[in-house]
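W.,

You were right to be curious about this one. When I first looked at the sequence I had no strong expectations either way, so I just let the prediction run and decided to look at it fresh. Below is the sequence, 139 residues in total, followed by the output.
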Amino acid sequence: MKILGVDYGEARTGLAYSDALGLYAVGMGNIKSYHIEKAAADIAAKAKEIGAELIVIGKPVNMNGTYGEKVEKVTYLGELIRTHTDTPIDFFDERMTTVRAHQILQESGVRAKNRKQIIDSLAAELILQGYMDMKRNKH
């Protein structure tokens, strides 16, 4: 099953996709997302373009497990995406993915000024990989 992973951001939204077997996530860049409505349409278009059978959106749960304004935005994004596609949508707790993405890039020697271009895509990759690992471990 091909899956599209999404790390929504108000300026950039990172995207990643799974291999056909659903084992590995691969970053596929960012889309500009200054308007949530445009982001939703672009995400639905990307899902169609890659033949995704599922869209997984990172849910930014607070560290203490509570939901805040960002979770509401991501939930709304999911509703907007549903107006553009019949592709099923799921959410995945993305706590610490952006922090982990920064750590990976720092450990890889990527300079801070160059991280901005790839951080969101890497975060989407981590979200999608975490989702697939969780599903695989439940079976």
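Here's what jumped out at me. The mean pLDDT is 91. And, maybe more interesting for your project: The helical segments are 36-50, 69-82, 97-107, 112-115, 119-138.

Coffee later to discuss?

I.
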